[in-house]
């Protein structure tokens, strides 16, 4: 064999080896890129994670929204508690309440009860959005098996059921939030000065009994059912109706959440008002309570303060509910998209 043939053969061999090495390197690189994604996808699609994700996404979305909206919620509660038992008198406004809170302390007082608000979202919103998605999946499957499409009635039923069950679970945190936000209205000597949501819960259970943590549970459940009916059912229905329009996906979600926020506010405010009054009340020196229950509170407020009192602060409530609904639903929608 000539030297030129030897060199040619060596060159071909080297080229072949180089090509094999490059191909192997490319395969390893591709594997390195795809394996983490595959591992992630495999983890997200395990039966446990598929069942848990609606709850995780819902709780995360609710906590993000509460952090943004907490100051408005504080003002809403103070508006509902102002002028209790009197039909006439000064009519507070969101601006006057805000000025009063800031003048009495500092700007961060608007975030009083944030720990309770976050705990409530971690429990309540996790449960209500998680249960709603779980119910919707089951209802959609049942409708598909029958050759039908899911309708507004099924969406409304899922929203009502999820809201009621979640409200019962989250009532103690909701009660602690109201107590923390209303504590500043008392004379300094009578304040409980709750340090955190845990301190509030333990103090209430110790002084009033564990059962007191479910004070106002009836209107809380009805409020949650009304709010969920307005928020989740109308959000789901609006998204379905806007699906074939020229609006972008983001615009559809924003529009649907704004519509849901309005209906959620309208249906739930009277029950939210009564819930706040019942959860704020404490026993008088003679051991009696101002209100015996939800219906007694409705009756006394209507008689002593007028029917329109139930919708006092609707603007503030809408500004609190609508953005909260929008942030919650948009974040939950996005988390659902990236984890599907």
From TrEMBL:
Polar residues biased stretches: 1-13
Swiss-Prot/TrEMBL Solcar repeat ranges: 49-138, 150-241, 248-338
Plastid among keywords: no
Residues forming coiled coils: none
Gene Ontology biological-process annotations: transmembrane transport
Subcellular location: Mitochondrion inner membrane
Domain of life: Eukaryota
Keyword rRNA-binding: no
SUPFAM superfamilies for this protein: Mitochondrial carrier
GO cellular component: mitochondrial inner membrane
Sequence segments annotated as region (Disordered): 1-32
Main subcellular localisation: mitochondrion
Membrane topology listed for this record: Multi-pass membrane protein
Compositionally biased residues, Basic and acidic residues: 14-27
Annotated TM spans: 317-337
This protein's UniProt keywords: Membrane, Mitochondrion, Mitochondrion inner membrane, Repeat, Transmembrane, Transmembrane helix, Transport
Family in the record: Belongs to the mitochondrial carrier (TC 2.A.29) family.
This protein's name: Mitochondrial 2-oxoglutarate/malate carrier protein
Organism of this sequence: Amorphotheca resinae ATCC 22711
